[in-house]
Amino acid sequence: MGFGLKGARVIVTGAGAGIGRAIAEAFLAEGARVHICDIDASTLTDLPQGMTGAQADMGNTAHVEKFIAEAISEMGGLDTLVNNAGIAGPTSPVDEITPEAWDECLRVCLTSQFLTVRTAAPALRRSDNAAIINLSSLAGRLGFGLRTPYAAAKWGVIGLTKSLSIELGPYGVRVNAVLPGIVAGARQKRVLQAKADRQGRSFEEVEADALRATSTGRYVQPEDIANQVLYLASPMGAAVSGQAISVCGDTQMLS
Length: 255
What we know:
Rossmann fold
C-alpha cells in the first residue's frame, strides 16, 4: 500500500546527501514531484527524473526566498515542505564556544526553518493536503553535553513547530517535528569522532556507548526517518499535527 502521494509537490531542504536525500528519494518513489536544495552544488548533479534542485544557503533570507519562489513556480504549487537543512555545530565546552559559532548553528538549524515557512505559507494554505515536517533531533528533547548550540536550536525547532501548528491548523496545514536519534552516515561519524577526540577516547568506545543508550542497540537508518516523514505528509497523517515524534530506537540519553 502506498502513501497516496502521487503528484504531490514537495520541497526538501538540505537534500544533497544523507537524511535529506533519503527523504527526497522516498517521495520520488511515491510518485511525487520533488525540488531540493543544498549548499554544496556538487551534490545536485545528475538528479533522477522527477527531482530538481538548486544551490542555496537556507540561513540566507535572499537565497531562501529565491529558492522557494522558484520551486513553487516550477511545480505549480506546494503540498509538503520538509525542513531538513542543518549543521552539527561545534563540539566544545560552553566557555570555549564563540558567539560566532553559536550564531551560525542557530542560523542554519533554526532560523532557516522560520525563513522557509515564512516564504512558503501562502502556497501551503492553497493545498488540499498541506504538511510541514521540521527536522529536529533527539538533542531537542534530551539535551546534549558539549553540543549546546545544536541542542538549543533543535529545542527551538520544537517550539516553532508547535506554534506553527496552532497558527496554520485552521488553514488545513499540519505541522510536525521529527526527532532522529543516532542516524547512520558520514555526519554521525564526524560527530562521534569529534567527541572521541575531545575526550581522548577511541571512536569505537564512543560509538559503543552511544548505541548502548538505545533499546534497539543499532543505528537509525535514513530510510527510517524518510518513512516517518512520508506518513506525516500523506493523507494517512491527516489527524497528526503539533507533535514532536522521535525516531531513535528508544534512546535514553545523549552524553
